[in-house]
TrEMBL record:
Family membership: Belongs to the acetokinase family.
Residue positions binding Mg(2+): N7, E384
Record-marked site positions (Transition state stabilizer): H180, R241
Record-given protein name: Acetate kinase
Pathway named in the protein's UniProt entry: Metabolic intermediate biosynthesis; acetyl-CoA biosynthesis; acetyl-CoA from acetate: step 1/2
Naturally occurring in which organism (per UniProt): Peptoniphilus olsenii
EC class: transferase
Amino acid sequence: MKILVINCGSSSLKYQLIDMENEEVLAKGLVERIGIEGARIKHETIGKDKKTIETPMQDHKKALELVMDSLTNAEYGAIASLDEIGAVGHRVVHGGEDFADSVIIDEKVLKAIEDNVEIAPLHNPPNIMGIKACEKLLPNVKQVAVFDTAFHQTMPEASYIYALPYEYYEKYKVRRYGFHGTSHKYITNRAAEMLGKDVNEVNLITCHLGNGSSICAVENGKSIDTSMGFTPLEGLAMGTRSGDLDPAIIPFIMEKEKLDPAEMNNVLNKKSGVLGISGVSSDFRDLESASEENNHRASLALDIFEKRVRGYIGSYMTELDDVDAIIFTAGVGENSIEMRESICEGLKIFGVEIDKERNNVRGEDKVISSDNSKIKVLVVPTNEELMIARDTQQLVEK
C-alpha cells in the first residue's frame, strides 16, 4: 500500500508518499506561501532531480492539486496514477478529549476537529482545509486523522488538571493536552525495539528538543505527563516561545507596554524563548556559535534551556518507578552533541553517565550512555511521517 502523508499549515503544506511494503519514501515535498504572492512547490521524487515550480495558489485545494500533479508527472513524478494511493494520513494538531488514538475520518470526526478549533485556532483550520481538499481530489480514498494530542490522552487527572476553578475545565475544557504526541509515540516504539523490550513494558523520558520542545514521561509505553499544556506555549524555553513563567507577568507587561491580548500572545509565542533572551537567534546552532565567541546572552539562553530540560527530566524521574532510558530526538536532541552532554552532566545524581565517544553522533539511532550508566541514554531520530503512515495503514487495513 502507498500512503500519502499530509501536514497542512496556515500557508504551507508538507507531504510524503510512502510505500508501506518496505516503508520507503517514494517522494516528498513542500508547498510554501499558499494564498500569498510567490507561492511555490518544492518536489522531490527519490532518485530523480528535485523540481521547484512557482505558480499562484489561492487555497489548499489548489496546492493539493499541484501535489497530485507532481506525484503523477511523467518526468519527475513517483507514480503513474492517483489510483496507486491507497490512503491519506493527515497530521491534525488538536483532537481535544475526543480522540485518544488515530481514527478514520468521517463526518462525525470532522465535526469534532472543527469543534476543537477554538482551542487550536492556528492549527486545526488548515488541517481541516487539507482534509476537505483531499475529499474532493481523492473521493474514494480513505483518510485518517493522526492527532498530536492523542498520545497524551492517557495522562491521569493529576497530570492534566490546572489549579484553577474546576468549572473552567468543565465549561471550557481548560486542561493540559500536550503536543508532539506523534513524535513521542514514534520514539517510544523505536526505543523499545533498541532496548529489546515490549513497548508496553518500557519506562522512558522522551525529550523532543527543537525550535519547539517538549518532554514526556512514559510509563509502560503510555504518556503519564508532559511539559506542554493547554497550548504548545507551556513548558521549556523554546526557540521563540516563553515556556513556563509567572502568570502575573502577563498583565504587568500588557499594562506597561500598552499591549492588547493578541499583541501579548505574539510576544509570548514569537519573540520570547531563547530568541528573546539572546537577542541573537531562535536557532540553537547560531546560539552555540555566538556562545563560543563569548556572547553572554547567547550563553545564558543555552544555560536556561539546559536547566529547564534537566528540571523536567528530574521531576519525571520521581513520577516513574524506574526509568529504562532517556531519549533525545528532534533538531537539537538529535544533532547537538554539546547540549546532550551538558544536560546529562547534570543528571549524575540519578546515575546517568554519558560516553563522550558514543555521544559524538548526529541524527542516527544510538545508545550514547556508558556501560556503567544506571539509566541508558539514546539518540533516536524522530519520524512523524512514518508514524502517521503506520497508523493510517493499520486503520485502513482493519
